[in-house]
Structures are given as structure tokens and as C-alpha cells.
Amino acid sequence: MTHEILILYGSQTGNSESAAHEISSLLPSKLPPLLNDANCDVKSTVMTLDDFLEMHHAPWTPIVIIVCSSYGVGHAPLGARRFREVCDAMLERHGYDDRSSTRFLEGVQYFLLGLGDSHYTTFFRNPTVMDEALSACGALRRGALGKADASGTGEEEQAKVIERWIDAMWGDLAKVVNELTTQSEGQQRLQRAQEETWKLCLELFPDWRPASTFALSSMFVPAIMVVLAILYHLLVKI
Ligand SMILES: Cc1cc2nc3c(=O)[nH]c(=O)nc-3n(C[C@H](O)[C@H](O)[C@H](O)COP(=O)(O)O)c2cc1C
């Protein structure tokens, strides 16, 4: 069995991005020895949070690792702006509402490593909003919320906090992967999570298209070209 794990990041100056790639490069050596099933294979894909939303066909996975900083005045950094808009909308509509219909992200489990700088009054605002929005909609955070402060010193230096968080994550991640192998209803829940998120994207972003439309439109141009080529061929023969 192969487990796909998405590693998603938003990063203005590259710190979160390099942490995301580090997690991905360590994954094949760190995770398999901790899994119950020796034949279990793990694969990861790294992309920005916005690419995940905008590459509508990106496959959803039950485990997501998110690494993201704060930028501007508690805003999202590059690669996470649309994702943050989706999070704001989730909180506005579903925050603190416990009805099961609003918990459409049930079945999604996430790890979150946030980066920020405590010199800012809006310290850690963006990762906090993401964490609150995802859990308000039913996603389950696993492991500790990573809080890597660019102004941290000594043992709290940002790079050290990032390394410690990554080191501590493998055990929790293995636990989640081991649990998943015994669950079967996961696929249905993931599909619902994806569909409801797409509905939100359609409302929020006028240029956004769901996967089927995207696939159709991307097939439309080549199909027209093939028809034109056949017509041209026929006309030349006449
Ligand atoms: C212009 C600017 C604005 C920032 N705004 C915030 C902020 O509002 N809150 C916060 O916690 N950190 C803020 N930071 C700090 C960054 O989040 C921190 O430097 C982080 O390590 C950057 O990670 P990245 O390279 O992945 O974007 C800001 C940094 C800069 C340069």
C-alpha cells in the first residue's frame, strides 16, 4: 500500500518553503521504519497552498502537512493568499458552529508548522487563523502546533524550533498512517471535503473552475486543433 502525503506551504522569503522541502526529503528515510506494515510505501508531493487549491485536479489526501508564515500585517505570504481567503470564509461561516453539516473537513488530518516574528503585534496571526478555520470545519490537527519565531534566541531560535518540530512529527505522523490503514470510509469523507471546499472557491474566486470544467476546457483546445487539422487535410486533398 502506498500513502500519499501532501506537504503544502506558503512562504514570502523562503523559510517555510525550505522547511517543506526538508520534510519531503526526510520522509522516505524517517517514516517507513516507524510504520507497522513493512510493505507500506510513502510518497509526498510539495506545492504551495494556493497551487493546491488552484490546480483543481490536485489529488486530496487524508494527511496534509502545512508549513506557513505570516506576512504584511498578519496576512498570508506568497502562495497562501487564496488559501487564507478560504480560511477567513470558513471561519466567518462555520466558526464556532457545531452542526455536522458545517464540519465538512472531517476525515482530513493536518500537521501545522507556523513561522512568524514576535516583533510584530500580529505575531503568528496567519497560522493561527489557518489552524482555527481548519479545525472549525472538522479537520483534525495532529501533533503540536509549531511556532517558529524569527526573533527567537538560544534554544528558541527559529531554525532550531523548526528542526525540533520536524523531529517530533515523525512519531505522530507514523501513528496517523498506521491508523489510516484500518479505515475504509475515508475516501467518501475526503470527496465531501473536496467538493465543499470547491463550492467555497467558486463563490470566492470568479476565475476559479472545478476539476471537471477545468479538464473539459483543457481538452477543448486540443480537440478543436485535431478537427481543424483533419479539415485542412481533407481540403488539401480536394
Ligand atoms: C514585511 C514583513 C512582514 C511580516 N509580518 C509578520 C506578521 O504580521 N506576523 C508575524 O508573526 N511575522 C511577520 N513577519 C515575519 C515572518 O513571518 C518571518 O520572518 C518568517 O520567518 C518568514 O518566513 P517565510 O520566509 O516562509 O515567509 C513579517 C516579515 C516581514 C519581512
Q: What is the second-level CATH architecture of the largest domain?
A: 3-Layer(aba) Sandwich
* Overall pLDDT confidence: 89
Structural class: alpha/beta
Taking all Cα atoms into account, the compactness measure Rg is 21 Å
- Helical proportion, percent range: 40-55%
Order of helices and strands: EHEHEHEHEEHHH
- Number of strand segments: 6
Attached small molecules: flavin mononucleotide
Number of helices: 7
InterPro entries: Flavdoxin-like (IPR001094), Flavodoxin/NO_synth (IPR008254), Flavoprotein-like_sf (IPR029039)
Protein name: Flavodoxin-like domain-containing protein
Keywords: Flavoprotein, Membrane, Transmembrane, Transmembrane helix
Care to describe what's here?
This protein is α/β, with parallel strands linked by helices and 238 residues long. It folds into two domains: 2-207, Flavodoxin domain (Rossmann fold, 3-Layer(aba) Sandwich), CATH 3.40.50; 209-238. Helices cover 49% and strands 16% of the residues. It is built from seven helices and six strands, in the order βαβαβαβαββααα. Strands 1, 2, 3, 4, 5 and 6 form a six-stranded parallel beta sheet that branches. The longest helix has 27 residues, at 211-237. It is globular. The mean pLDDT is 89. Flavin mononucleotide binds next to α1 and β4.
